[in-house]
Amino acid sequence: MSGSQLWDDVDFYFTSHLSPDDEALQAALRDSEAAALPHANVTANQGKFLQLLAQIQDARRILEIGTLGGYSTIWLGRALPADGRLISLEYSAKHAEIATRNIARAGLERLVEVRVGPALESLPKLADENPAPFDLVFIDADKVNNPNYVEWALRLTRTGSLIVVDNVVRGGRVLDAESDEPDVVGTRAAIELIAAHPRLSGTAIQTVGSKGYDGFAMARVLP
């Protein structure tokens, strides 16, 4: 059995027991596939991981940077209390339209707002609203801007908030200090920012599975 097949089989075992998709999640994936959205959504077990992180945080306010078809948004939104709030930022109007339908079908339209436009334009507008601090920020957008997103996340959170950055391993390419690939440059800059920032305590975890070899970085906001 090849390594990748083994990863797939182990993912299936864990997912089938611990984080099975329901109809709303399956429909979100089907609609994303039908609309030819990129295959960049988290897996079911990763979605459940994010949901558990939000619940451990007792999160009432979540910020997501990168909505895509709303699959991870649904997992995160389900962690919120009835008076919670999730704001998700999506560059593509097409993606946002599909995500909004998927979120509504999951019964989360009262809790979730999808805002359309480049995140680096949406984030200053959000900050201008002087919102209550976010308890959890999930960053899963264009990787070249990861350090900018981490900086904005820090501005919009509080002591004890959690910042999660997806896809930080890049199939191992994150090791290449000489790379000029934007996703690697941005990811390395975000990791180095987390390492050096006096108000962040972070780590990174490598993952393997049905989406290949990648991982998450996580940072807790310090006083």
From TrEMBL:
Q: Indicate whether S-adenosyl-L-methionine appears among the record's keywords.
A: yes
Q: What is the lineage of its organism?
A: Bacteria, Bacillati, Actinomycetota, Actinomycetes, Kitasatosporales
Q: Which GO molecular function terms does the record list?
A: O-methyltransferase activity; S-adenosylmethionine-dependent methyltransferase activity
Q: One biological process GO term for this chain? A: methylation
Q: Which domain of life is it from?
A: Bacteria
Q: What residues form the membrane-spanning segments?
A: none
Organism, scientific name: Streptomyces shenzhenensis
Which keywords fit this entry according to its UniProt record?
Answer: Methyltransferase, S-adenosyl-L-methionine, Transferase
What this protein is called in its record is Methyltransferase
Q: Give the matching InterPro entries.
A: Cation-dep_OMT, SAM-dependent_MTases_sf, SAM_O-MeTrfase
